[in-house]
Amino acid sequence: MSHSFDDANLTATTGLVPIMSLAQMAGLPDLAEDRLTVTTTGADKGANPAPKLATLVAGMAAGADSIDDMNILRHGGMQHLFDRVYAPSTLGSFLRSFAFGHVRQLDAISSRFLTNLNEHTPLLPASEDTGQAMVFVDVDDTVIDVHSASKQGAGFGYQGSRGLNALLATASTGDSGQIIVGQRLRKGSTSSARGADKFVADALATTTRINSGLPALV
């Protein structure tokens, strides 16, 4: 037995409407247009970076965790919610054209987007009735297992398994959940301390812009 959701007048992910409206108000499309520069090839892999980035964000918000899962945005009446819906293969080609410089561009977009988003909804709220409120910044690595030697960016890490080795920084208060303020993909054989000073400094700079002057504890 199988099923599909293909009614052109219905959408299964209506929560994307307020999410992407908020992202637009916080300037995500404009930031991507201004700061993301992907070279356009004969296949136009780098064309229209802003809507492609917005599509990827929408897909992840809807639960997609792979390129093929981006098909969730092509079901039912989703075409009425977006100016253009891209095929997973198009988005995959777009991402594969990225180099490390593009990762840094995305870092700049993410930091500025969080700052703008904080103006619309407090990201790190703290109770006003305590003089001991602070922001907790946690820096840790994570390994996402992969099962193909050709997986771009994958390598063997300290766990002895093949995977994507990422360094993450999150910020939170006693009254908020964790938000990601920094992320970096690393070689599996890289020492945990390598590049950590710059990474932590960037994460703290982003946190400072959105934490309403609270002290930060790393």
Distance between the termini: 51 Å
Give the helices and strands as they follow along the chain. Answer: HHHHHEEEEHE
Number of strands: 5
Let me know the average pLDDT.
Answer: 85
How would you describe the shape?
Answer: globular
Largest sheet composition: 5 strands, mixed
In total, the number of domains comes to 2
The number of helices is 6
Low-pLDDT residue intervals, each spanning 5 or more residues: none
Beta-strand content bin: 15-25%
Task: Calculate Rg over CA atoms.
Answer: 19 Å
Structural class: alpha+beta
Helix content: 25-40%
Give a description of the structure.
There is one protein chain. The protein is built from six helices and five strands; from the N terminus they run H-H-H-H-H-E-E-E-E-H-E. The radius of gyration is 19 Å and the shape is globular. Strands 1, 2, 3, 4 and 5 form a five-stranded mixed beta sheet that branches. Helix 2 (28-35) crosses helix 3 and helix 2 runs antiparallel to helix 5 (100-120). The chain has helices spanning 16-25, 28-35, 49-61, 88-96, 100-120, 196-210, and strands at 135-145, 155-156, 162-172, 179-186, 216-217. The protein has 218 residues and is α+β, with helices and mostly antiparallel strands.
